[in-house]
Amino acid sequence: MLEERLIQIAGVMDAAEAEMLQQCGVRYLGFPLRLDVHRADISEEEAAAIIKSLVPPTCAVLITYLDHANEIADFCRTLGVRIVQLHGSISRDELERLRDCDLTVIKSLVIGRQPDESHERTLADLAPFVDAFIIDTFDPATGASGATGKTHDWHVSRRLVELSERPIILAGGLTPENVQRAILQVRPAGVDSHTGVEDWTGRKNQARVRKFLTQAYEAFDIVRPK
């Protein structure tokens, strides 16, 4: 079960970065692996070791483009994760099979890759087989469907939040500077940042992570009070 007011920081680089994120209070750490576009930040072996070391209530999330239920379930078992975020073009049948694997499934809706109205159909078609959706941004220059550092039209995201039977997590170019405005406008159940909390070295910056958390929770206190 995913918590309300979820905040995920994705793209963990190593054990030291994972420890820093935990110390900041990040509850969901995203590990992008087996990707179509980007190169993985760390090896699968290192990711598994970090995931094993996480202290509850911190959770690991596998972020992947895999699109076959058996392969996804096997990889989750290997890593030791119970939450998977799917960015590939997985079929409804495969999602239905994955439902039997006792995993929490988050499915991406990528703004800019398909017409906006297609996402409304996807919400209805896939809702029975997923626990949440994550809205991210397509980058036509690279073909990436996440970790683009780019925002999208938040009016589209707000519309999807209003229509969805499942919680929606907002991603795509979120930073400490814009996350509060994004939450107030879109009213998602959670937010995700990857490149938006990194510094010029490409690593997560502790001050930016803490500011992101503060700004996000202040906005959640308004739109989703405890």
Question: Could you outline the blueprint of secondary structure elements for this entry?
Answer:
Elements: E1 6-10, H1 15-24, E2 28-32, H2 44-53, E3 59-64, H3 69-79, E4 83-86, H4 92-98, E5 104-111, H5 116-126, E6 132-137, H6 154-163, E7 168-170, H7 179-186, E8 190-193, H8 206-223
Parallel strand pairs: 1-2, 1-8, 2-3, 3-4, 4-5, 5-6, 6-7, 7-8
Helix pairs in contact: 3-4, 7-8
If you had to describe this structure to a student in words, what would you say it looks like?
There is one protein chain. The chain is an alpha/beta fold. It has one domain: TIM Barrel, CATH 3.20.20.70. It has 8 helices and 8 strands, in the order βαβαβαβαβαβαβαβα. It has an 8-stranded parallel β-barrel, surrounded by 5 helices. Helix 5 links the parallel strand 5 and strand 6. Helix 3 crosses helix 4 and helix 7 packs parallel to helix 8. The longest helix has 18 residues. The radius of gyration is 16 Å and the shape is globular. The mean pLDDT is 92.
Quick structural gist:
The chain has 226 residues and is of the alpha/beta class. The chain has helices at 15-24, 44-53, 69-79, 92-98, 116-126, 154-163, 179-186, 206-223; strands at 6-10, 28-32, 59-64, 83-86, 104-111, 132-137, 168-170, 190-193. The protein has one domain (6-209): Aldolase class I (TIM Barrel, Alpha-Beta Barrel).
- What is the residue-averaged pLDDT? 92
Spatial strand sequence of the major β-sheet: 1-2-3-4-5-6-7-8
What is the H/E string? EHEHEHEHEHEHEHEH
Number of helices: 8
Give the helix proportion (percent range). Answer: 25-40%
Structural class by helix and strand composition: alpha/beta
Flag low-confidence runs.
none
In CATH's first tier, which class applies? Alpha Beta
CATH topology: TIM Barrel
